[in-house]
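Morning, I've got a small favour to ask if you have a moment. It would help a lot if you went through both lines with me. I owe you a coffee for this, so here goes:
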Amino acid sequence: MFFCAQNIAEFWNVATRPTERNGLGLSPEEILQEVGNIEESLTLLPDIPAIYGAWKQIVAAHKVQAVKVYDARLVAIMSVYAVQSLLTFNSDDFERFSNIRVIHPFVFASLKLGAREEKVFRFFESSDWGFAGDGGKSL
């Protein structure tokens, strides 16, 4: 199970946003602790030059616009690293990308999990946020 720098950046955005603006209202110290937990539980997929080319092809092919370019970048990272599945609460945002499997956290909870996946799921469940995947190559 994997994460990328963009996952952390997006989490940081939501986590530092005040609760009255649909954020988590966490302090930087709390976020750093959560990021440390992610780093211990998941494998980082580093940004590499091939991601840009894959992203550019994806946004052109799917006519992606505005804020959706960030979703396309996640799909590009998945493509470069041959990651097949994505766990997200925003499954509708990824419907246009037929080459990936999108899993909602409620579905993920019902999957048969190994010990590592169970530990990761419990972390996300207790943290009220998450980004992981099912067994195999998942982001």
Remarks:
- Helices lie at 5-16, 28-41, 49-61, 69-80, 105-110, 115-127.
- The first helix runs from residue 5 to 16.
- Residues 2-127 form a domain with the Rossmann fold fold (CATH 3.40.50.1010).
- Strands lie at 2-4, 43-45, 85-87, 101-103.
